[in-house]
UniProtKB/TrEMBL annotation:
Name of the protein: IS66 family insertion sequence element accessory protein TnpB
Superkingdom, taxonomy of origin: Bacteria
Pfam families named among the record's database cross-references: TnpB_IS66
Length: 111
């Protein structure tokens, strides 16, 4: 439906009252630009709400998700202002699972 080639996560919280224009301004501030076919994820301070802004090459999509219980597993800003996720990590993140253990991050390299 909407082609997404890269998924970016902002580590600093965002006010969830932000609309499309405010979220787009935040993407530009954190990531430098809103690239076509990229998704940008933001959470609130409590990490129980998330907004996703997607630039599809023609316009902007803004979606939100709220967990009724628990929190999204969100990295702290000590890891930098942004991180790239793969599709498997995104799937784990949106349901509240520890996404850092999915994909390449789950490799065992030391015995």
């Amino acid at each position: 439906m909407i082609r997404i080639d890269r998924i970016w996560l902002a580590t600093e919280p965002m006010d969830m009252r932000a609309g499309t224009e405010t979220a787009l301004a935040r993407v530009v501030a954190v990531f430098g630009a809103a690239q076509p076919h990229c998704a940008y994820l933001f959470a609130n301070k409590r990490a129980n709400r998330m907004k996703v802004l997607v630039h599809d090459g023609f316009g902007i999509w803004l979606a939100s998700r709220r967990l009724n219980q628990g929190r999204f597993v969100w990295p702290g800003n000590w890891q930098g202002r942004q991180m790239e996720l793969n599709p498997e990590q995104l799937q784990a993140l949106v349901v509240g699972l520890p996404w850092q253990r999915v994909g390449a991050g789950a490799e065992i390299r030391l015995l």
